[in-house]
Amino acid sequence: MRLVTVAGPPSCGKTAVLSRACGLLAAQGVHTAVIKFDCLQTRDADAYAAAGITAVAALSGGLCPDHFFATNLEEAWDWAAGTGAECCVIETAGLCNRCSPHLRGALALCVVDNLMGIDAPEKIGPMLRLADMVLVTKGDLVSQAEREVYRHRIRQMNGRALIRHINGLTGQGCQELATVLSRAPDIATVTDMRLRFAMPAAVCSYCLSETRIGARYQKGNVRKAEFAAVPARDPEGEAAYAAGGPEEPREPGISGERP
Taking 70 as the threshold, does the pLDDT of residue 258 lie above it? Predict the structure, then answer.
């Protein structure tokens, strides 16, 4: 069965483009099963079902979504195999920007949108940097110049990925995505496969339901941020600023003054 991991921030259009591409595969006789990993709530399984695609959702609830995904990957694979699917697509939206669901030996996609801000590609982290293909949505809502700049910023973060603009509503680029999905690596089992990126460790008091604030309640893997020293106050400067700022020197001959 072919395996594809798809990651990206919430509401960037992952389900829309995957629904359209999986629908095109179904029209070609290729059965696809989708597993959606999320945190608290999702209706995406219903959206896939409405498009005629076999899908199921898995919610991490109070657990770390990154670790929940990794510890349920075998079960997700077995479920997809049980449906008789030829292609298993795992969509994740609950992962934080420190992590990546991508696996060595499987096709890895990242979906971002043009409205996330020009610095978004740098903030997203390994789920974009380690992807084989980056899909950019909502390009119809920005100018050509903005699309080009955004594409350049993606390229700065991932120099080897295939970058494509895509639209799940109009279908732009979805046929090519369906072709890419149909050619994903054929895998016998996910057991013993390895993540492309090690998830950060975060075993501290708050992982164990601590709610109190204060260093004396913090145990385990705790790292303190370093904040820059506050500069000394300048009362005279503050008073001058409050009064409208220091008067700028005027050149002779300006404002009616005689040289």
Answer: no
Q: Which residues make Cβ contacts (< 8 Å) with residue 222, sequence separation at least 6?
A: 204, 205
Q: In whole angstroms, how far apart are CA 100 and each of 8, 9, 82, 148?
A: 9, 12, 26, 25
| The residue to which tokens 């409405």 are assigned | 50
Judge whether 17 and 6 are in contact, CB under 8 Å: no
123 pLDDT exceeds 70?
yes
Cα separation, 240 vs 226, whole angstroms:
32
DSSP state letters, the chain? -EEEEEE--TTSSHHHHHHHHHHHHHHTT--EEEEEEESS---HHHHHHHTT-EEEEEE-TTS-HHHHHHHTHHHHHHHHHHTT-SEEEEEE-S--TT----BTTSEEEEEEETTS-TTHHHHHTHHHHT-SEEEEE-GGGS-HHHHHHHHHHHHHH-SSSEEEE--TTT-TTHHHHHHHHHTSPB-S--TT--BSSPPPP--BGGGGT----SGGG--BS-----PPPPPPP-HHHHHHHHTT-PPPPPPTTSTT---
Indicate the pTM of the whole model: 0.82
| Cα four-point dihedral sign 90, 93, 99, 100 | positive
DSSP string, 207-224: GGT----SGGG--BS---
Share of the chain above pLDDT 70, in %: 93
